[in-house]
Amino acid sequence: MQQPIIEIKNANIYQGDSLVLKEVNLTIREGEFVYLVGRTGTGKSSLLKTLYGDLLLTEGEAVVAEYQLKNMHWKQVPYLRRKLGVVFQDFRLLTDRNVANNLRFVLKATGWTDKKLIDDKVTQVLEQVGLQHKANKMPYEMSGGEQQRVDIARALLNSPKLILADEPTGNLDPVTTDEIMNLLLSIAKESNAAIVMATHDYAVVKKYPARLIKTEGGRVVDNATIDNL
Length: 229
Hints:
single chain, alpha/beta, 6-stranded mixed beta sheet, 4-stranded antiparallel beta sheet, 7 helices, 10 strands, 33% helix, globular, AAA+_ATPase, ATP-binding, P-loop_NTPase
C-alpha cells in the first residue's frame, strides 16, 4: 500500500477565532487523485491553506509530506512548501519575464544554484506539460490553457509528492479543461504524486470520477458521492 502523504486526526481548523471545520480525519496516500468539493464558505479554502501552512493548526494532529503541522513555526513553512506543488486558478505568472525565466525564478528562490541543473529541470517540466516549444514566450502571448500548463510545470519543479490544485479549470473552456484534467491525472499516475483538486465544476467530477471529499456543515465528508453533491 502507498504511504500516506496527508494524515489528519481530530483536527479543528480555524479562520481567526472562527471554527470552520471540526474533528477532521483524513488520510490521502501517494499517487491518489482526490477532489475537494463544497459550497462557497464551507471550508475548502481553509483546508487547503492549512495543508500548505498558510493557516496554523492548533488543535488535533496533521502530518503533510512528513511535516508536523500542529503549531508549526513560521520558519518551517517554506521548507514544507518546497515539498508541495500548488496550482492556482489565476495562474500567478510573473508578467515581466518569459516562461523559462518564470520557472528559473522559482528554482533559485528555493535554493537551486547550479545553472545547468536549473536549465535541465526547466526543460524537463516543460516537456512534462507539453510546452517545451514555448519556453521563450511571454505569459501574455499564451492562451489560458497554456498559462495553466506553465502553472502546473511550476508546481512540478521540486518533484513534489503532493500537488494542491485550487480550481485549476475554473477559467478554462471545456476542451482546454479536458486537456488539463488529462495532464493532472497522468502526473498522478506517472510521478506517484497525490493530487488534491478543489473544484466547483461538477461536470468535471462526473466525467473524471475519483475519490470525493466534501466540506459541509463544518465537517469534512470523505468518500462523498455524486448523488449528494
